[in-house]
Structures are given as C-alpha cells and as structure tokens.
Amino acid sequence: MTESTAVQEPMTTLLELLDLSEADGAQTDEEIFVGVSQKQPAQRVFGGQVLSQSLIAAIRTVDANRPVHSMHGYFLRPGDANQPITFGVQRLRDGRSFSARRTHAYQNGVPILSMIASFQVPDTGIEHQDTMPLDVPDPETLPSAAHLLGSIDHPVAQSWAFGRPFDIRHIESDIYLHVDGNHAAHQGVWIKTIGTMPDDPNLHRAALAYASDYTLLEPSLRRHGISWITKGLSIASLDHAMWWHRPVRVDEWLLYLAESPSASGARGLNTGKVFNRAGQLVASVAQEGMIRLPDKSSA
C-alpha cells in the first residue's frame, strides 16, 4: 500500500459515512436518511460514527444559516458495523433564532442512539474562554498511532494504525498497550484528519463529533493504570454531549484536552476541551462510559 493510498482510503470512508441518502423519499412522522457503517474488527459500530451521522441527518433539516451549537445523545444499544443505519429526524422547534431537532438512529427497527441537537442563527454577545496551555509539545514532535501500532500483527492494532481517518498523537505516553508515568486522570492529544476536508463547515463540525469519541474515556482508564489491552476490560460509551463554540477545521491540528473528575458505579465521567492551534477554544465535550473489569475476588 502506498502512502497516498493509506491516506486516501480512511478519508474516503469518512466522507462516505457523512454522505447520507434520503431513503428514496420514505417518510413517517420523521424525515428519513440512511447511512453506511464503517467496518470494525469487533463488528460493533464506532460511537463517533453514529454521533456524526445523526448530526448530519439533523443538519439536513435545518436552514443553512443556523449552524449546530450543541448536541446531547444517549447510546442505547450496540450497533452492527455490518449493517447500514436508518436515521429519523423530528423537527421539534424552529424559533426566531434557535432550532431543535431529535434524531433516532435505527438498526433492526429499534434505536441504537437518541440525540437532540440545537442550532442557532449566528449572533454577538459576551465572550470569554479558558486559556490553552502553552507548555505543550508540537504535534510534529510526537509519534502517531501508525508509528506506535503499525508493526503489531493484530486486526485492532492495524485498524487503529491505518484505518482511522484521524491522526491521533498523545502528549503524554499513549495507553494502547500499557500506562507509563503518572496515573493522572487527565491527558492531552493532538488530532487532525489525515487528509484535506471539503470546506463545508457542517462536515467539519460533524467530523469533530466523530473524532471526539476516540480518546475521551482514556483519562478514567489512565487514572487507574488501565490500558486498552487490559485482560477482561469491558468499556462502552453511555452518552455524549458536545458544544461548538467557534468555527473549526478538523484538517488542521487541534489540541484535545480531557480529564475525569469522577468514576464510580462502573462508570467514568470525562470532560474535554478542544483548542485550535491559534489558542481558540472551539468545542467542549462530556461523556460518561461504562468501565468494567473482572472481579478478581471471585476468580
């Protein structure tokens, strides 16, 4: 595989995922769209995929002058990566400045995700933001997932190394195989698409939702020295919230800082901030995930 082919295939997949069809005009009390699924080694739909597709479906029903500013979703069932997904959008409200949409993502006639998104006509008002840390190494100095995992002969390692449309570079050591250094409940990664995206701002917002699900639960794992290959680890996203604050391009480096303020009840809460390289806070995210380990006392 040439370098250009390795870059093009995941990018083509990302754009295909976000190019929903209109189900040949089929309608209920919802507006219906259909999306393909990205193949996964574990055969389970990646949460970021269904989030981004649900968002695109909602965007298709809103006036172009109202960009999305927030979404709140619940993962209800695991999705099958070997099947397409049907998206039903309900128009909840269209006010003078704000619109609201509810999207259900369906497989086999039942919802696998339920999401509400809010859209707003651009406006002006008060402004402030958290400050981006200055003592962060440049992404060009950090190893990529392809560098760290590319030589490992395992389908998940190969998928994470070469099948993702995003380049992900950990500032602290990664937790793919083991957790080095301080077991802190926070971390930072640089992310960007491995190729150039079209100029459509909605695609960039949706692609950021897609990527935001990659590493958001890692602070909960890092805090307890749990790597992704920990034997018996069972982990799943339960919900996902996201707020877009400012325009964003995902084909330029973004600093994704995350922390876990609490873990209990086999759940870990994680929050994140996304800065562009100019130091602007472009988005915030929050997610709770199920994190289960084998009960060693009964082993």
From TrEMBL:
GO MF annotation list: fatty acyl-CoA hydrolase activity
Catalyzed reactions per annotation: a fatty acyl-CoA + H2O = a fatty acid + CoA + H(+)
Acyl-CoA thioesterase 2 C-terminal domain location: 179-290
InterPro entries: Acyl-CoA_hotdog (IPR042171), Acyl_CoA_thio (IPR003703), HotDog_dom_sf (IPR029069), TesB_ACOT8-like_N (IPR049449), TesB_C (IPR025652)
Protein keywords: Hydrolase, Lipid metabolism
Domain Acyl-CoA thioesterase-like N-terminal HotDog: residue ranges: 42-120
GO biological process, one term: fatty acid catabolic process
Membrane-crossing residue ranges in chain numbering: none
Keyword Hydrolase tagged: yes
Top-level taxon of origin: Bacteria
Family: Belongs to the C/M/P thioester hydrolase family.
Subunit structure: Homotetramer.
Protein name listed in UniProt: Acyl-CoA thioesterase 2
Organism of provenance: Arthrobacter terrae
